[in-house]
Design brief:
Blueprint: E1 14-15, E2 19-21, E3 25-31, E4 38-44, E5 52-56, H1 70-95, E6 96-103, E7 106-115, E8 122-128, E9 134-140, H2 148-156
Antiparallel strand pairs: 1-2, 2-3, 3-4, 4-5, 6-7, 7-8, 8-9
Length: about 160
């Protein structure tokens, strides 16, 4: 008996009519539960839920799905990647907001950064001058609503702690 070192499972390419994978993305043609048609689910390696689910074309027999091919797979990868990118951009925009204000003739950028956490999100409000130098930083509630009026009031009050 010889000992062989454990090797991690390397992703393998799959090219089947209803399942196609490049090791990173997997396309799976599935029966559409809502009607007699078919759908395709695009799942990123390591994720439990698909990033994209959409209708899939019927084959020539109008009963079975059209088989996956390299062109369709590449298009699906591009579309699913774009969906993930948009989701990340939307999440970033929800968690990072900023406004520009003018206080005593000085332009300031006030930024709100929220850090999500399962045990409790945290948020920081910061002020920066025109050169990007940080003037103040305070902890705020993750539900804090950043507006021009609130940012201006905070700056005019000397960047004190907010409640």
């Amino acid at each position: 008996m010889t000992d062989t070192p454990d090797t991690p499972d390397l992703p393998t390419a799959i090219q089947e009519p209803r399942r196609w994978s490049d090791g990173r993305w997997t396309a799976q043609v599935i029966k559409n539960e809502d009607d007699d048609g078919w759908a395709v689910a695009m799942t990123l390696q390591g994720e439990s839920e698909p990033a994209l689910v959409g209708p899939w074309t019927m084959g020539r027999d109008k009963k079975n799905p059209k088989p996956l091919d390299v062109s369709a797979f590449n298009t699906l990868v591009k579309t699913a990647s774009e969906v993930l990118r948009r989701h990340e951009q939307q999440l970033h925009a929800q968690l990072h907001k900023n406004v520009t204000i003018t206080v005593q003739g000085e332009r300031l950028r006030v930024a709100l950064a929220i850090v999500p956490d399962e045990e409790g999100a945290t948020a920081t409000l910061s002020a920066h001058n025109a050169l990007g130098e940080e003037l103040a930083r305070v902890l705020v509630s993750p539900s804090f609503q950043l507006t021009i009026d609130r940012a201006t009031a905070w700056a005019e009050a000397g960047f004190g702690r907010l409640r």
